[in-house]
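in:
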């Protein structure tokens, strides 16, 4: 089994709701966000710092400034990356869940 196949997929609507809730909770205090380099993702087994899912996958590095002014760097998974960039998950991913 390749490492990529261990990515924690969102398999049903419950997973999706949990993911949305975690994302909303984590990003609630964000005032400013910027992807440091769209073309420079890297593989990591460290949990995504937004949705906190634990299995490995691609990560993008983001600079985040909170409403209180504190500045952080976050390692963000592909699903959270898409949420930030496009406001939702990509359509093939959502279609797959709808079909379950
Ligand atoms: Zn994530």
């Amino acid at each position: 089994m390749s490492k990529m196949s261990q990515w924690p997929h969102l398999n049903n609507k419950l997973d999706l709701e949990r993911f949305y809730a975690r994302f909303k909770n984590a990003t609630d205090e964000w005032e400013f966000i910027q992807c440091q380099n769209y073309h420079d993702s890297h593989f990591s087994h460290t949990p995504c710092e937004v949705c906190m899912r634990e299995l490995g996958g691609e990560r993008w590095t983001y600079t985040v400034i909170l409403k209180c002014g504190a500045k952080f760097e976050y390692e963000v998974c592909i699903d959270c990356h898409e949420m930030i960039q496009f406001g939702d998950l990509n359509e093939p991913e959502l279609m797959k869940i709808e079909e379950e």
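note: Residues 4-99 form one domain.
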